[in-house]
Amino acid sequence: MDKSVSNTFQILKIKRDDIKVIIQGFGNVGSLTAKFLNDLSIKVVGVSDVSGFVYDDKGLDIPQLMRDMREKEKLADLSNVQLNYDVSDKDRIFEVEADIFIPAAMTGVINDRTAPKILDQGIKTIVEAANIPTTPSADQYLVNNGVLIIPDFLANSGGVIGSFVAYQGRTEKEAFDLISYKITKNIKQSLLDSVLKANNNPDTHPEVNVRKVVQK
Predict the structure, then answer these.
(1) Cα–Cα distance for residue pair 58/152, rounded to 1 Å
(2) Phi, psi angles (nearest 5°) of residue 19
(3) What is the mean pLDDT of residues 194-213?
(4) pLDDT on residue 103
(5) Beta strands 125-127 and 100-103, pairing class
(6) pLDDT band at 215 (very low <50, low <70, confident <90, very high)
(7) pTM of the full predicted structure?
(8) 88-110 in b/e burial notation, b at 16+ Cβ within 10 A?
(9) Regarding predicted confidence, which is higher, 184 or 105?
(10) DSSP letter, residue 134
(11) Alpha-helix residue ranges (DSSP H) falling in the chain
(12) What is the bridge-based pairing of β-strands 100-103 and 148-150?
């Protein structure tokens, strides 16, 4: 997941210091994604789960948040202790400004109701860490409005690659090396292909083509 995001920055020439990320879902995928992004000095300003939304415009202290969540089942539990977290309704995640939205939990969370809200909050990129988090109509709406979507079969393919390496009896290091290589190569090629295709068609956003380019 961190490779998907960092490769997007590299191709589109976005400075990491300027980026704000929000993550929908704070289970295994969402929390580890937040950790990896924090390790890359990428600011995660909000995370949500089924119970609530935690937000700090200056950037959440992800290592501290993960420590505080060790003995808790959901984000809403943070509001029951003196930890200075502002836990609000989970749907507030669609009402805060950010650059990158990472759906990391539910299928269909980006739909006809939520897609306009995401667009209104200035989201430029969606990285699909969950399986099928975007409905077809919402996908079309967002890409037609210039939002870059890194599809799930690229962004969260590390698990499949890892399982393949484990089946072969190879080492953990070999798994991570192969994941890094495959995702880096596929993301870069897909983005470059979509940009090149868009350059040949001035009426087409580069973002529109990523999913279709990969599937061809």
Answers:
(1) 28
(2) -95, 140
(3) 50
(4) 95
(5) parallel
(6) very low
(7) 0.74
(8) bebebbbebebbbbbbbbeeebb
(9) 105
(10) B
(11) 2-12, 28-39, 62-68, 115-120, 136-144, 152-155, 158-167, 172-199, 210-215
(12) unpaired
What's the pLDDT band for 104 if we cut at 50, 70, 90? very high
Closest CA to 114 of 138, 150, 148, 98: 138
Is pLDDT of 9 > 60? no
The residue count of the chain comes to 216
Rounded Cα–Cα distance for residues 77 and 194 (Å): 43
CB of 27 within 8 A of CB of 181? no
Output b/e per residue, 1-24; b: 16+ Cβ within 10 A.
bbbbbbbbbebeebeeeebbbbbb
pLDDT tens for each residue of 149-189: 888 877 765 555 555 556 667 776 765 665 566 556 655 66
With beta carbons less than 8 A apart as the criterion, state whether 154 and 7 touch: no
Mean pLDDT of 4-33: 77
Structural domains present in the chain: 2-156 (3.40.50.720), 157-200 (no CATH)
Find the distance separating the first CA and the last CA of the chain, reported in whole Å: 23
